[in-house]
């Protein structure tokens, strides 16, 4: 390990076409002269010259030295944008004292990891009794450790750990990751949304001032900003230079793009603390979650490639083929009967389901959403023999059995709430928060409460052959400490996973209100939205996949009309769209026709043949095109690919469209053929090109990318799927 004090080094981290240059010279807070494209192998002198070339001039009406944007921007350094650190020590009289940091050490424990230790120092004066001489001593009042790590895929991670070294308590208000953006970053993209309409993109120019998004829900929320992207004008999926940041926590967040009057632009992320939520006594520390950032000069697809590689390297990443899943929610809701569910199991096995998940409604008295949360006992009326007969039927049919739980919640009408009302999360000495879906949050920061839930879930996992938990969270917090709740929830997940490593967890939060890198360190699936309307779901999956790879993203075939929207959609469109992710079914199969079940059977076989590719490939998206929209997944060796051609609106032209298939190897030739998803797409008569009628076409990758192929003129809300495979020369 290299450890230096008052270092004169300029540190250069490189990986996967990305460079991070860290200027650690002197005793001030280090800065980042460059984060972006790979600069190549640079000598120490070249790195020094790079830093010198980036030094700012002293502007009019400014501090009397060049303004330097440190890795922890501070007002004391002349920074007037969002600070990287805010807090105060308890002092008499409310005296204001802002931190002034200096470098204590620079460590490089690995080639692509740097640890910077900063200290805030006060001067203590004392008078000698022997000669009345005055001496001064530097006293450290806080220590801040900032880590940077550049992954093999080019994802930059950063986190901070702050330690209070003063005798007074330290109340922390803000501890951020702040990264510089170049002047060419002129546009911003992030996300909004609502229930059943998550990850709705919104973009604008980057103007002077702060674009700040805050989440105060106790979970990321359906309107989560998710991923904040800055880029060159008109950046798209396949073009433009872009920089992005995501904060790896399921709690409250602040995400921003900041452009000051000095012309400096930054990209930032931090937890949003409630007043007094982080209060450190002497020698106590607090560590932030990781912030994840990435750069690309190939547009948004380049970001996805980096982030997907990162998630696929996580220890919790699923290693087995993603089983085709049936969830019972929209089939039966709370109306559980042994007969209905037994018939559903039979039909699920018949169409090719590999995992059967019993959703909400199995607990004692759980006939609606107003009762029984927290008791976690099987209803003896509905299930006189417990879940054993159903579980045995499922596993005997060759399927895995999964169970819905909501461990963080409690109903007032429950044995748990009656026995332990003090376990309901609230602000100290305050009334209960407002109810939400007739439920409240359990204070998992109370060890006894967390242990109760852990043991109740563990008892179910011990008794039954459960291989999967759908972990739901159906409300915002509205009270108590968000930070402590998130930490306790993670601990509960970790404890259960450690004891039952074979049990996978899906994170659901009223759909997609908890999709983040923090929970994805612990789960094997997330539920992106409660809507199974394929029209809405297409956009949700497309944008959620910008950060998270498809194998994590549940994607189910629902009924028509859709339960969330009332929209009627063709079976072919619903089947094609549900292939885009970890596929499943959320449909009452007992109400389906023999023809529909045959279509599902074909679709299930198609999913099994494509899932290895879908769950490991590189995602590409068509740029600059209206309907139909192109989405592709290409194998790492470019020998295999699958493309969706999706039409969401009525075609504006009466002629069949031409669509390019981006991302293929230009030096290879490919066979392009339609995929049978179980039902034919609805097209306008007479618009099928000759190759479609013939069943396939062969073209070089360069032609498919640069020229494309004609595809049938699709009805609105319709899609086709194409398999593109390398032709091996004879």
TrEMBL record:
Class of the enzyme per the UniProt entry, highest EC level: hydrolase
Keywords, alphabetical: Glycosidase, Hydrolase
Catalytic activity: Hydrolysis of terminal, non-reducing alpha-D-galactose residues in alpha-D-galactosides, including galactose oligosaccharides, galactomannans and galactolipids
Keyword Transferase on entry: no
UniProt-annotated catalytic positions: 472 (nucleophile), 530 (proton donor)
UniProt keyword annotation of Mitochondrion present: no
InterPro entries: Aldolase_TIM, Alpga-gal_N_sf, Alpha-glycosidase_related, GH, Glyco_hydro_27/36_CS, Glyco_hydro_36, Glyco_hydro_36_N
Pfam families linked: Glyco_hydro_36N, Melibiase
Domain named Glycosyl hydrolase family 36 N-terminal: residues: 29-281
GO biological process: carbohydrate catabolic process
UniProt GO molecular function: alpha-galactosidase activity
EC number: 3.2.1.22
Residues bound to substrate: 195, 359-360, 437, 470-474, 508, 530
Annotated family: Belongs to the glycosyl hydrolase.
Protein name: Alpha-galactosidase
Annotated source species: Rhodoglobus vestalii
